[in-house]
Amino acid sequence: MKKMSKIYVAGHNGLVGSAIVRKLESIGYMNIIKRTSKELDLRRQADVNTFFEQEQPEYVFLAAAKVGGIMANATYPGQFLYDNLMIQSNVIEAAHQYGVKKLLFLGSTCIYPKRAPQPLKEEYLLTGELEPTNEPYALAKIAGIKMCSAYNREYGTNFISVMPTNLYGPNDNFNLETSHVLPALMRKIHEAKMNYALAVDVWGSGEPLREFLHVDDLADACIFLMKKQNSEDIGEFVNIGTEEEVSIRGLAELLCDVIGYDGKLLFDVSKPDGTPRKVTDITKLRELGWRPNKPLSDGIIQTYEWYVENVVKNERTAEN
Ligand code: GFB
Fold first, then answer.
1. Which of 38, 110, 112, 37 has its CA nearest to residue 74?
2. 7-319 CATH choice from 3.40.640.10, 3.40.50.720, 2.60.40.650, 3.50.30.30
3. How far is the CA of 210 from the centre of ligand 1 (A)?
4. C-alpha to C-alpha distance for 188 and 64, rounded to whole angstroms
5. What is the pLDDT of residues 15-43, one digit of tens each?
6. Of the four listed, 46, 72, 111, 118, which is most buried by Cβ atoms within 10 Å?
């Protein structure tokens, strides 16, 4: 990938796509193509083909997806399945049709079986039943992995897939109905502090274990893989994570420390826990030559500053 190569970042406004664009621009990539979902609906195959025919991208980061936390997955299972299958199928097929040199497809560690051994190794894919709260999303992502590897076999393409663990960082979704746990608890704890509330509501038992990767680390890993590795080096896909886990209770306590809130945590067990544990094995990624470098506490401090500067201030301005 050269500094003037034509690179399409699908989903450039999202958490992942925006981090990839930030990183690419910061290291001198000048020729990045972006389209909002209003300008190009990736669920429409003819429009996607026209776009690829006109733009002829050489490299594609496929970060466009319908994503959300445990409640969004449960509330919109049809949209999660349809939108993701359509977006990824159209982009992967067009990348093949129009001769893209390399494509990187982003999945998620929810592709692994609910009761897979931990830490999760790549070979555990399709060895058991999926976690029901995100089965439609996981099935779409598994189809994406299989489509990339099938196209590599059948057409000789160079399409690679990566499975990031739970992500967080700037440009995350802070909507309490649809967000993931880290931004949701950041918002709830911040608002509790500002309103002098005595307690914060945390969904589930607080016992599930999760691993959190800062999205700037993910972007760095994706660009590293795009530049240096091919599908035959990577195999079907590679995990991207930190191998460090924290309970939801532990995460809430860490957020309370960073935000400066000393009220109570109230666990609402009427809400789902989801998968009990999800920690990646990143041996393969280390062997390929990459390792994470942002500790969770530093990443949370940086993300909280971003949240206050961007989300809180904008909402205050909109209210006035
Ligand atoms: O991040 P999250 O929504 O999704 O929830 P998953 C993780 C855990 O945090 C669950 C708990 O046990 C939630 O019950 N939790 C506690 C909360 N308080 C809250 C809250 O206020 N909001 C939210 N959202 N959770 C998603 C999948 O699973 O992870 C996706 O649904 C995707 O498909 C994504 O794979 C990475 O980690 O359970």
1. 110
2. 3.40.50.720
3. 9
4. 27
5. 999 999 999 999 999 999 999 999 999 99
6. 111
